[in-house]
Design brief:
Elements: H1 3-19, H2 38-65, H3 86-106, H4 113-139, H5 144-150, H6 155-180
Helix pairs in contact: 1-2, 2-3, 2-4, 2-6, 3-4, 4-5, 4-6
Length: 181
């Protein structure tokens, strides 16, 4: 792996960690809070692509697993992978991969924010919310239908995150391409 790729991965992991400093916002009727950190995983797929984006996500999750309290709310350790949020955590690398794969295929260099938004919304936000709802259902006494219904509360915020990550990815990609010329 090239030094340039390792540097990009390290920077992306750092960005995801910093996004975890924003405190989670609890929702009274859901056992899972709203977090900003999942925008980092979406951005990782858009900026780094399927391979390096997924490596960055897996590296972040490895740091969480060995105990670094870098998840939103200062959580870390293996227990989070068996908690009510496990479905979300396990969805992150897949979402990053799918976003990177679709972006590489249909929106190289993030030239079109609308494509980036659509890819990020479908393969990031909605996929993560679905997997998270399944995890909540499996790890609690909430039925799948109620869990899926409850996850609708995340859609407005996740739509905004998908929109912002697509715009940010386009601007960063455009800036990097100018520097490369």
């Amino acid at each position: 792996m090239k030094t340039k790729d390792m540097t990009k991965i390290a920077i992306m992991v750092s960005i995801i960690i910093v996004l975890g400093f924003f405190p989670p916002i609890p929702i009274s009727f859901l056992p899972v809070p709203i977090v900003i950190q999942n925008a980092g995983f979406m951005l990782s797929g858009l900026l780094l692509g399927k391979k390096n984006g997924t490596i960055a996500t897996m590296l972040f999750l490895l740091l969480v697993a060995i105990g670094f309290p870098i998840l939103a709310g200062g959580r870390g350790g293996m227990t989070v992978f068996f908690s009510i949020t496990a479905g979300y955590l396990l969805a992150y690398p897949f979402a990053t991969f799918f976003i990177g794969w679709m972006s590489e295929k249909f929106n190289p260099n993030n030239q079109n924010s609308a494509y980036g938004f659509g890819i990020t919304l479908l393969f990031g936000a909605l996929f993560i919310d679905f997997c998270g709802a399944v995890g909540v259902s499996l790890l609690s006494d909430v039925t799948l239908s109620k869990s899926l219904l409850g996850s609708l509360a995340f859609i407005p915020g996740d739509t905004m995150k998908a929109f912002l990550t697509a715009i940010i990815a386009k601007r960063i990609s455009k800036s990097l391409s100018k520097r490369g010329k």
